[in-house]
Amino acid sequence: xxxxxxxxxxxxxxxxxxxxxxxxxxxxxxxxxxxxxxxxxxxxxxxxxxxxxxxxxxxxxxxxxxxxxxxxxxxxxxxxxxxxxxxxxxxxxxxxxxxxxxxxxxxxxxxxxxxxxxxxxxxxxxxxxxxxxxxxxxxxxxxxxxxxxxxxxxxxxxxxxxxxxxxxxxxxxxxxxxxxxxxxxxxxxxxxxxxxxxxxxxxxxxxxxxxxxxxxxxxxxxxxxxxxxxxxxxxxxxxxxxxxxxxxxxxxxxxxxxxxxxxxxxxxxxxxxxxxxxxxxxxxxxxxxxxxxxxxxxxxxxxxxxxxxxxxxxxxxxxxxxxxxxxxxxxxxxxxxxxxxxxxxxxxxxxxxxxxxxxxxxxxxxxxxxxxxxxxxxxxxxxxxxxxxxxxxxxxxxxxxxxxxxxxxxxxxxxxxxxxxxxxxxxxxxxxxxxxxxxxxxxxxxxxxxxxxxxxxxxxxxxxxxxxxxxxxxxxxxxxxxxxxxxxxxxxxxxxxxxxxxxxxxxxxxxxxxxxxxxxxxxxxxxxxxxxxxxxxxxxxxxxxxxxxxxxxxxxxxxxxxxxxxxxxxxxxxxxxxxxxxxxxxxxxxxxxxxxxxxxxxxxxxxxxxxxxxxxxxxxxxxxxxxxxxxxxxxxxxxxxxxxxxxxxxxxxxxxxxxxxxxxxxxxxxxxxxxxxxxxxxxxxxxxxxxxxxxxxxxxxxxxxxxxxxxxxxxxxxxxxxxxxxxxxxxxxxxxxxxxxxxxxxxxxxxxxxxxxxxxxxxxxxxxxxxxxxxxxxxxxxxxxxxxxxxxxxxxxxxxxxxxxxxxxxxxxxxxxxxxxxxxxxxxxxx
Amino acid sequence: xxxxxxxxxxxxxxxxxxxxxxxxxxxxxxxxxxxxxxxxxxxxxxxxxxxxxxxxxxxxxxxxxxxxxxxxxxxxxxxxxxxxxxxxxxxxxxxxxxxxxxxxxxxxxxxxxxxxxxxxxxxxxxxxxxxxxxxxxxxxxxxxxxxxxxxxxxxxxxxxxxxxxxxxxxxxxxxxxxxxxxxxxxxxxxxxxxxxxxxxxxxxxxxxxxxxxxxxxxxxxxxxxxxxx
Lengths: 831, 229
Hints:
The complex is a heterodimer.
Chain A: H1 2-15, H2 21-54, E1 62-66, H3 72-80, E2 84-97, E3 100-109, E4 120-122, E5 130-131, E6 140-143, H4 145-150, E7 158-161, E8 164-168, E9 171-174, E10 188-192, H5 196-199, E11 209-215, H6 218-231, E12 237-240, H7 241-244, H8 246-294, H9 299-335, H10 350-375, H11 394-413, H12 416-446, H13 453-464, H14 466-499, E13 508-514, H15 518-527, E14 531-532, E15 536-546, E16 549-550, H16 559-566, E17 568-573, E18 581-586, E19 598-602, H17 603-609, E20 616-621, E21 624-636, E22 647-649, E23 660-666, H18 672-681, E24 686-689, H19 690-729, H20 731-743, H21 748-786, H22 794-821, H23 824-828
Parallel strand pairs in A: 3-10, 6-8, 17-22, 19-21
Antiparallel strand pairs in A: 1-11, 1-12, 2-3, 2-7, 2-11, 4-5, 4-9, 6-10, 7-8, 13-23, 13-24, 14-23, 15-16, 15-17, 15-20, 15-23, 18-21, 19-22, 20-21
Chain B: E1 5-18, E2 21-34, E3 38-42, H1 49-56, E4 64-69, E5 72-73, H2 79-89, E6 90-93, H3 105-115, H4 121-131, H5 147-159, E7 165-169, H6 177-194, E8 197-201, H7 205-209, E9 213-218, E10 221-222
Helix pairs in contact in B: 3-4, 3-5, 4-5, 5-6
């Protein structure tokens, strides 16, 4: 039977193209597949990059990291066991080319580095990369292209780092342990570890990250790992491949899931368009199915013909959609180039299968039930037009659609609670939109008595096809709203936040100020006209026990608590409570309490670990155990850009520990040489330019928003497809009405005006709905998530209403203008 | 001489439910039609002509009674079984032509052959199109053809499988007199040449008189048959 059905299916498919529904189905499926596969490709490629780098990200099989120099005994033991060893020491420092400077991530490495993976270098900045077989020779540096560009240097230039000078001999393209995909902000520069002392960058208490790398045969590495675990100090962190990337994986997984869910909204809207188009397809094909049956076709045959056509459309849509998705993803990768370090591996084909499955699932869920009904059209219809197919059982009519939606969402979220939240949230969101849409449509249509004939005709159409109007309003409003919301969040909230900061807010952070240079450093800043904020000591400490109970291995419900318990913290001690700190429990250190073993914790620290006033916290400070009692909880305003700490101790107990100092300052260097002077005089001090940092943060946010916006663009497209499907579904009716209007004396212009009035109203209402929604969500985000003042934005309303009106008018007009072109006599004669 | 009975109606009754209660459209209609005969079914509007045609062709099922088409009891078959029997034994010509708008004239004529799984569909359909005088119009779509041409396509489509019985429902109802006359001539000519049984539903008494028998319905009942003058 299939052999007989194929030619007929193909022939009628090609001929039916101009009738519209099949192209709507194709368009809707294409948009749905493009949205899903675009996100799928992007996430899969980033995921693959992480997997690929997992083996190399350590530059070794085992990596021991420590904030303090690592004992040489480990290296001796490793070599004794036949392992290779190399060192990599990292710190932030400013690199100079004359007066041009740039904060850089300095990596000093020993011969043998990297033990795993490769360092890629080029002969010129941004040049073709080749594998480096050695490390920089003494006196040489390999900076990254970006670094060279920012200080206007080239290969052969002489650069100053700290107290030493270096010659640029090659350009660093990538190194294996540069941190996975979302890059560290400062560009890297590679030097020979033998040159590090000459720079004088490392002073007591400097923030330096030491790493010792080990590699060898798997059993030797395993045995050594066991030995090292039992011999290392608690502040030394041992990393192997299995734990090198879980955080990144989780982050990418979450981002991917968010983007996939966002694209699912587009997919669901497209499914609605498919259902609308399928319904009209059925209406138009009742006669031909009845005829085919009269001519002897069985029900199975007519169903097979329809199914074959659908399958073909599904496959073609999946192919085109996947191509568009691939192109969109490739475009995004180019746009996000700066965020994604290195080349991403090519995409695999998994998203294509997902696209195909989505296409088929939408068809099976939303187009199959009407087709099943179509196949049940009785042959008797050829004699009696009023005879139609019997209605489908509710289960058959809606079951497949519900099943398809549930399967698609479950496939993306793979988590039942998230599925329930997403589905319920989406249901409530769309329900509210639909309700608001219904109210708007009712209000608008009730106003039609006060307008001219064209507008009355347009508004009457909105009211008469009320369900379709509300569906279009919801679909289009939804797409427009998410785009507007992103724009609000991205621009205004960020600007509001910046505006909420005082103008003399510190713009430079200085850390690693040695104790003995502190007064001189502050005096230097003052002579340059910089207003320094408080200068605070800083040392690292690790929480080891709470009320005598050791925290290592203790599970914490709050993931942040886990972090506080496992990682070293920066701590300080002071007598003064900063104006940007507010005591919310307990009391600040009194004069009598100076020198006592007390600690003031920030609200974040207190909440994450579930602490109460009076709890005893034990810390490991430079190898010494020290217990302090929680005496107060502080609410810290972190965006004041002042030095602030989770943990503050009173002066006294920690005075003797070797710490460095930090401060921030509002500082407009008179010339670029001022900063150069500063860094030359105080080489171990690390300088952070907050303006640069903010600009970089802004860049990251902009690019992340771009990725999300591209996905939401598909949602808007899906809204347009729903509009087209609705127009298509009402085409015969519109054609007939247009014919009657014209027979009664209306000219083409009047009819066209009526059509424009209908769509302009629909678009304006969608825009209104979108602007209201985006403003409410923006307000909520500002007040409760970002904690910044919310300023209502008139342009959101302007763009929403004007943009919505224009877009829908143009799309609706383009889709319906042929209706007016059809001669009325032909229409009324049934042609 | 024993005539081959190709179509037999036995006590056919059709009732439908209307808002006013059950409505009997056909009541105890019985007759036999031999192979090669041409039979006109006449009667006023609402007499039950189209319903009788639908029951005889298996497009609808009777409330009681049965139809034997080529010896097969239609009432014993399910919908698909009746469809298969139609594909093998029945041809149709309708008042409103019922051509598939997205197919060309030739493709419309090929359709029943393809449904029956015939491999020579194109060649046979072309020959039939030539027989009805449409050789020059085979590549045209229905909308590009006049009413008379469309009905000729419908006739070609009905005859192309050489069915045992051809049902025609007001075949000239949508045509002007001259075109209608040409179409009717064609219908009878093909009927005579291919020994098909023709069953014609019509209002047109003069058309009915060209048939070998006339069955007249009135209020859902079959009136006693009279010889054709």
